[in-house]
Input
Amino acid sequence: MTESEPGTPSAPGSSGTRRPDWAAVGALAGVAAALVALVAYLLPPDAPPPAPASSTGWTPEPSPPPSRTSTPSPGPEPSPSPSPSPSPSPSQSPSQSPSPSPSPEPVSSRPVSLPTVRPAGCSQASAAVAAYRRDPGPTRAAQADAANLAYQGLMRAGTDADPPVRPTILRLAQGFQELSFRLSGIVLADPNEVIPDLNADLQQLNRLCGDGG
Output
């Protein structure tokens, strides 16, 4: 058996296996990658995975994806504030004649009268005489006792009396003492003779104390 000779290599233009065109393949791969990126940009984003169910069995619903064209909700409209009413200008107000101001009342030129201050001793003396007049007694003995009480009250009043009224009060006290003596019989004389002197001293005391004219 004869050995076969090795074959000769085929020429470049022969009918053997063809090599791929790497430049065309790279261009096609770039075009495909651009198409994939364009499709991924146009598609909406994937929804988030659902949250695990809670122990109560309630599953929150997935919130819709925010829209790119959503407009912000309008805020609350401001409440209209009342505009102040325009005050009428002085030029628009009707002209009014000024009302005459009331004339002031004339001030009385009479001086203010001060309360009358009674001298010391007047009140006590008046009380002693008023007690005698209120209950002089039905008999001469009772009248003598009443005159003696008036005498004692007038002596106490004269002790603390002011100098202008002291002599009159003491003279009136002596008159009631004389009346008591005549009524009781110590002095044998008519008691009615003392009454005019007592009345004159009482009028003088009233003028000094401001009780009469």
About this structure: The radius of gyration is 70 Å. Confidence is low (pLDDT under 50) at residues 1-16, 53-58.
